[in-house]
Amino acid sequence: MIKSGRLHLVTSYILTYENSRNPFSSRRNAIEKFIRTYSSYHVGADKAGRIKHVAKSIMSYGVRMKDAYHVACALEDE
After folding, report:
1. Sequence-separated contacts (24+) of 66-72 with Cβ below 8 Å
2. Max CA separation in the chain (angstroms)
3. Burial class (CB in 10 A: 0-12, 13-18, 19+), 27
């Protein structure tokens, strides 16, 4: 759906960091290429303060930290 344009891919400094920790270089490289090709919007580290605040709020509902940060970054594009 992303490739066809029906959905927009929002990437972030969190995703970039998480992908950099992938021990499998072929997977890491494929993800980097997909991000470069299809990302509609990138949430940079310059918004980390706001992202942290929103993520903490999301975590209060029982969402794990990494997942909460990904959601907070996606919400930043709204």
Report:
1. 66/14, 66/18, 69/12, 69/14, 70/12, 70/14, 70/15
2. 36
3. exposed
Two tokens at 56? 């903490």
For residues 10 and 41, the answer to whether their CB atoms sit within 8 Å is yes
Whether the model clears a pTM of 0.90, i.e. scores above it, the answer is: no
Q: What is the pLDDT of residues 16-60, one digit of tens each?
A: 999 999 999 999 999 999 999 999 888 988 888 999 999 999 999
Contact predicate 9/40, CB 8 Å? yes
